[in-house]
Amino acid sequence: xxxxxxxYKECESVIIQMCNYNDNTNLDRLTMAINVCxxxxxxxxxxxxxxxxxxxxxxxxxxxxxxxxxKYFKDEVEKIKQMLEYHEKECxxxxxxxxxxxxxxxxxxxxxxxxxxPKVYSQ
Length: 123
Ligand SMILES: [Zn+2]
Description:
The protein has helices at about 10-20, 25-40, 45-55, 60-65, 70-90, 95-115. The chain has about 120 residues and is mainly alpha-helical. The longest helix is centred in the middle third of the chain and has 22 residues, at about 70-90.
């Protein structure tokens, strides 16, 4: 599974595109996983951790359950990698759905993370 990505950065971008903005439970899990990953050094370990967490979020995804999580994940990753590759060259900047989705997910993740942090550290 770690061979699906060239780097952790790529893995994170792809998984963010696969996140559902309205699924708070799963976003919360992924937020925690991403934060743990940011404290790790090894790219392979980070990719593995984030992918494992993402796979656990697929239980309420019918297509993933039917196809099998690993197959579903692999297929989706390939699709999104192609989409992001195209996006990198052709991003319209203005009203871009890909950029807007990433921004929205990241903002929501920051809020979730801030809420979890013990008050004593927040000043
Ligand atoms: Zn864009």
